[in-house]
Design goal:
Elements (H helix, E strand, L loop, with lengths): L1 E12 L4 E12 L3 E5 L6 H9 L6 E6 L2 E5 L4 E2 L7 E4 L11 H11 L4 H14 L15 H14 L4 E5 L7 H18 L2 E6 L2 H7 L2 E6 L2 E6 L1 H6 L4 H6 L4 E11 L2 E6 L5 E5 L9 E6 L4 E4 L8 E11 L3 E7 L4 E7 L16 E6 L5 E4 L21
Parallel strand pairs: 3-9, 3-10, 7-8, 8-9
Antiparallel strand pairs: 1-2, 1-4, 4-5, 5-6, 10-11, 12-13, 12-15, 13-14, 15-21, 16-20, 17-18, 17-20, 18-19
Helix pairs in contact: 2-3, 2-4, 3-4, 4-5
Length: about 400
């Protein structure tokens, strides 16, 4: 039995019938940690709020632990307080007049848990989030990271089998986000809960989840383990969101076994790549690759399999260099790790320098092309380009 089942879930807003969630179906197993990943407006938070009972879906069905909590056909709707779930909000949602201990114990008080057991559970949760010493302080007097730990303890104090997270770390600095996501995953594992976590941060999604659900325009684009989505995105939208900084249009030239030679549009460069989908010569594809998989090679390297370009900009990031290279087709992003800095002289890496780029065939991913127009950019209408180097 699935811990959570969503069937044909649809949510519309307003007189304009804005479609926020579009016929979404998903099964989440008991004890699984699932992240809903996508840009603002993709429907991930609305899906979570429907699951929590904070929004009433337009149609569809929701089951939690085998119990129907919403059904359009049978006109069922179980209110949030009767769904036996915990929820951690982005804004912490702490009460200004309550101490830390009172805040964590409030769900237990509502559930009429005996006072002795309530104190025991509050002490246990505060120990887990390392806030025993702050039990009698007002919750809102704590730092942002401590407040989020209070919210986390409150959500889990009632030992709910399902805990929902609505971008809980987005207000924290980078160091706190890293430590908090470790704590969230450890609590999930220790308490054996089922967790559904909303985020727009692909690194966060990969670090936390057993499975990632990539959403776009109210629909699911792809579901898989972090490794599956990281290595084998289904389309350009997923590839971009999973950190493929380069997505270029191309045409298949030849096919042999599991590899193909493709020609990049306007660049003329032919490169070999491993094909994950069936294609035929003449097919249009997109070629996706990460900046970290691009190697800068001598500019007199054989033209077969390399991309010629000119360095536009270099950004020093401490442990790496980001190099933005202008090519005939547009910008390509490369990354040089700190351990490889010594391979390049100052003259090798300077603005305006003509260089050549190479990528291993095994690190190229072939994606379906959304259009066949020879001189249009099929990526621009599908992918939001990330911050350049």
């Amino acid at each position: 039995m699935s811990a959570v089942t969503l069937r044909s879930l649809t949510k519309r807003y307003g007189s304009a019938e804005t479609l926020a969630v579009d016929d979404l179906s998903l099964d989440i197993a008991e004890g699984e940690f699932v992240t809903l990943l996508g840009p603002s407006g993709c429907g991930k938070t609305t899906t979570l709020r429907c699951l929590a009972g904070l929004e009433i879906p337009t149609s569809g069905e929701i089951e939690i632990g085998g119990r129907t909590v919403f059904s359009y056909e049978s006109s069922q709707f179980v209110p949030p307080e009767k769904r036996a779930i915990g929820m951690v909000f982005q804004s912490y949602a702490l009460w200004p007049h309550m101490t830390v201990a009172q805040t964590v114990g409030y769900p237990l008080k509502l559930a009429r848990t005996p006072s002795s057991e309530r104190r025991q559970r509050v002490d246990e949760m505060l120990e887990r989030v390392h806030l025993q010493a702050r039990a009698d302080d007002l919750a809102v007097s704590l730092s942002g990271g401590q407040q989020q730990r209070v919210a986390l303890a409150r959500a889990m104090a009632n030992r709910s089998s399902l805990v929902l997270f609505d971008e809980p770390l987005s207000n924290l600095d980078v160091k706190l986000r890293h430590s908090m996501r470790t704590q969230i995953r450890e609590l999930h594992d220790d308490l054996g809960t089922t967790s559904v976590y909303v985020t727009h941060d692909q690194e966060e999604a990969i670090a936390l989840a057993d499975r990632v659900v990539v959403m776009n325009a109210g629909q699911i684009e792809q579901v898989g383990t972090p490794r599956e989505l990281y290595a084998n995105p289904r389309n350009a939208f997923v590839a971009d969101f999973m950190g493929f900084q380069n997505i270029l249009p191309a045409r298949v030239v030849t096919i042999s076994a599991k590899t193909a030679v493709v020609e990049l549009d306007d660049i003329g460069a032919r490169i070999e790549m491993v094909m994950q989908n069936e294609h035929a010569p003449g097919d249009r594809v997109l070629v996706a690759f990460r900046a970290s998989h691009v190697e800068i090679v001598p500019d007199d390297s054989p033209s077969e399999g390399v991309i010629a370009g000119r360095i536009r900009h270099i950004t020093y990031l401490g442990m790496s260099l980001r190099v933005l290279v202008d090519t005939a087709r547009g910008p390509v992003r490369a990354q040089i790790d700190e351990r490889d800095f010594g391979r390049y002289s100052t003259d090798d890496l300077r603005t305006g320098r003509e260089i050549a780029l190479a990528i291993s065939p095994s690190q190229l991913v072939g994606l379906p092309s959304p259009g066949d127009a020879d001189h249009s950019d099929p990526v621009s209408s599908t992918v939001t380009t990330r911050v350049p180097a």
